[in-house]
Amino acid sequence: xxxRNRSAYAFLAPYLLVFAAFWVWPIIxxxxxxxxxxxxxxWTYHLSFNWGRLFGDPAFYNALENTLIxxxxxxxxxxxxxxxxxxxxxxxxxxxxxxxxxxFFAPVVVGEVAYAAVFRLMFNVDFGIVNxxxxxxxxxxxxWFAESHAAxxxxxxAVTWRWAGYNAIIILSGLQSIPEDxxxxxxxxxxNRFQQFIHITLPLLKPIILFCVVLSVIGTMQLFTExxxxxxxxxPGGGTETLGLLLYRQAFQSTNFGYASAIAYTMAALAVxxxxxxxxxxxxxx
Length: 286
Description:
The protein is an all-alpha fold. The chain has a single domain, classed as MetI-like fold, CATH 1.10.3720.10. Helix content is about 75%, strand content about 0%. Keywords: Cell membrane, Membrane, Transmembrane, Transmembrane helix, Transport.
């Protein structure tokens, strides 16, 4: 038995070494860097230099507020939309379901730069199709890139468009695992479709929806692409700057790696806390 265990660990050793070198050690090292003053050469340990600045930095609180706004507004909207899409995709009345499933999943595989460029064109204040459509129903053109609230709405729309279909496919897999016998029994008891959805489908989908919520929370806490590419690096005036974008600016523009590491661990801690809160709220009653 011991020989077999040694053989197994010998085969695992190359992977474990790579895993330790490129995943475990960088995590430990970045945590240590968060306690160092990286504005001097050589770097020196200063336990409160970065963490003390973090809790008194207006830029951090602005990025945190923007991130939480997107989290609180966008995630519920996206999960609700994804659930409705999954139900429609699972309908036996829908023809060519494979094509529709691919179409809803396709935004995830579209290149980030390409999709950001399309959104910038669509929401252009002068010739964008969105303002053209608003004009046809009597609304004034919206300065999507010059007004903070409008830019935030644009980010929420873009993120929802990109990830709603992805979550819908995950929820669809949960829908297809629900036995048809449950619905047949409910139909015999004269339970209508809406009541079946509320009292049967949603409770059985609860673990899948919770899984999508946790994934979405983690993704939102790391949000970088949309504010960087669509609203021109978190503009206007930091109105859409997220924690991920602030981390990037500190690490790769200001080369302040210590402060960036403190921001990164704050992001990770917030993601863990919010995810655990979701798991606690969604736990099964004993």
